Amino acid sequence: MIGLGSYAYFWQQSDRVDEPVSLVDVLRDTRAQDVDLFQICDYPPLLSMSATEIADAASAARDLGIEIELGTKGIDPAHLETFLRLADAFDARLVRSMLFAPDSRPSLEQAERMLRTALPAYEAAGVTLALETYEQVATDDLIGLIESIGSDRLGICLDPANVVARLETPQRVVERCAPFTKNIHAKDFAFARQDGWVGFTYSGTAMGTGLHDYPHLLRTVRPDERHINQIVEHWLPWQGDPESTITTERDWTRITLEYLRSTT
């Protein structure tokens, strides 16, 4: 299934615009684009919302016919337990996370203990925990951790853009991660020379115009065949003013949806 994620609304929800959109506004916009899935990912207000606000947002998603996934950072068992409760409130079947949180950088041994503590509740609830590929943890180490634990409810959220900062090649990471992939973050990326031709900027670009060999990912991972959701997100630099930035953000979402739909 193709879905939208919070990073597709990064600027529209930020305090750099005059009227940031709410979570329910985003859900309505998702429905207006004929999308049936939304991943609430790294959305800070989620943890401060009251039980009533959570229930209202979950009700809005159900009324709109939108399936919800959740996303956070960190694997502290208490934190993952919180997100399992949120998953229950939203009827979410997947939680994306990362090994490290801003205040926690466990070793691989510590990470294994934490995950083994948290996973039985996820298994019992039928919720999958997908750990994202990113530059702070070598992909081979992430795969080794998942293989060591050996749970059907633990896998990878595949984001080949992140690994470039570790000098890992996206195609190799796609091939290594394919058997373990439970979720995909879909965006394109590219390098551009900085002003003065000294160094490069690595950032997002409109889908299909950058360096990401997405057809290779599709052939290798086979998301449609394996029922792996593809979540649209962007790395969009600020475009100089709110209107230009939001217009570009919306354009990139439209372009990415058209691209992904053309591959199914």
TrEMBL record:
<dbReference type="InterPro" id="IPR036237">
    <property type="entry name" value="Xyl_isomerase-like_sf"/>
</dbReference>
<protein>
    <submittedName>
        <fullName>TIM barrel protein</fullName>
    </submittedName>
</protein>
<dbReference type="Pfam" id="PF01261">
    <property type="entry name" value="AP_endonuc_2"/>
</dbReference>
<dbReference type="InterPro" id="IPR013022">
    <property type="entry name" value="Xyl_isomerase-like_TIM-brl"/>
</dbReference>
<keyword id="KW-0119">Carbohydrate metabolism</keyword>
<feature type="domain" description="Xylose isomerase-like TIM barrel">
    <location>
        <begin position="79"/>
        <end position="254"/>
    </location>
</feature>
<dbReference type="InterPro" id="IPR050312">
    <property type="entry name" value="IolE/XylAMocC-like"/>
</dbReference>
